[in-house]
């Protein structure tokens, strides 16, 4: 239940709704009992067991006399309204019953009105804070988690927590109060009969609690399976071309079918136990009422210690307990599902963000001298990817990193942007350790263009504006021109307002890459990081993108991670990497003259082309 206590701060902005809900629920519970009790005088009149006698208005001398006082007061007003006319007395009582039931339902509506505002407001805030956490967590978190599982926590588990928490909210206020007020009224009618009822309540509670014991663990398994299920769908949509080209539809159908079959079995098991809660509690309630009919009937017919009208009213009150009892038993099942969901949601919310700005972080607005990478050792898991790596990048220079796949080139880009933090050594910008810099100001100094052109399902303009959100259309078009992209954008039906589809799939690879470059150009950072920006392109697209890159890198400090060596021959320094270490560095001509590793790579690529 600790997780539910963590939800309480989310209620604070809506505490007025919470207070009003509690207030109206108290009135609902009170009038729920009074509306049933109001049947008593009507039955008295119908059975002729007690006639309203006009007399002086009764007075309340003690709280212990409240029941008798209310009864005498009702008789007084009934007699005053009806005189000796029993029909008018009956009409008075019927009007009273209608009024009490109307008030009960008005208070019910008002309670539900405020709980709706409260639960929807909390759901909105919960989703906001979870999304904020998801977007702030480091990239390393998502290398270990399935995206589908994170999506399941955001979409499904948050709703489950909201539903179950407010089931508890109702559970501890509305339904128990209804039962308490009803039991007080039942005590007023017959102490002996009510004590007899109490024998059966613990038995019912024990049976219901036994049924729900395994629900939490099964609910947790359902939510985990839901995460896997969403992951399969997300991966299928993302890799549809590969699946179709390899005729792998049946394999993915099988994986999906296995997942939904597991989900079906777990959901059926939980659903059947949930479905059992309501009929089981109702059956146990009816058994209790059947025993009451026998015992109470004996008091009316044999012992003559209870009026028939009082007994019928008592039975109505006893049945009135069944509805809240059913709601409590059903809510207790929902709570178990909610606890499992809450565990998963708060696992994400309480995840420690290891990459964030220090409290006294340095805010840096410009780049003045150099980037220094000093004696870095870095590993993703156990084995070091970079080993005692050092490099100086002077301002205004273009440094190219080359080497075979797995040599650690892209890791440099990840470390410079602080997607990951180094374990040993340090990276400095103008002599300041990047861990001491404000994270937003660090990333504001850098533009990143990756091999995968990450674009969003929006217009060209809005994709470019990520680089500078207050830019004018003219600035967007200028950035597109520098990126060699305006030539195709101007021919589109809506120009920069054209929607490019999911992940930019309406465009070719070269067009997408040039839009990514335009986005970086508009940001206009002093440091540019190009992570194999042309390696996925055909020769013609590569030439267009290469022109765009050269335009962008003018008068800028650039770190170019390259697979195709033809694209980096103009670099000031080419750094050749192998297994996380620098094996050679120098200009293109210097490295060719050395006849070393770089020369071999150039020769191999020349031969391949």
UniProtKB/TrEMBL annotation:
Alphabetically ordered keywords of this record: ATP-binding, Membrane, Nucleotide-binding, Transmembrane, Transmembrane helix
Domain ABC transporter: 371-604
Chief location of this protein within or outside the cell: membrane
ABC transmembrane type-1 domain: residues covered: 69-337
Source species: Flavobacterium noncentrifugens
Protein name: ATP-binding cassette, subfamily B, MsbA
One Gene Ontology MF term: ABC-type oligopeptide transporter activity
Subcellular location: Cell membrane
Transmembrane listed as a keyword: yes
Transmembrane segment boundaries: 21-43, 89-111, 154-173, 179-208, 283-300
GO cellular component: plasma membrane
Pfam families: ABC_membrane, ABC_tran
InterPro entries: AAA+_ATPase, ABC1_TM_dom, ABC1_TM_sf, ABC_transporter-like_ATP-bd, ABC_transporter-like_CS, P-loop_NTPase, Type_1_exporter
Membrane topology: Multi-pass membrane protein
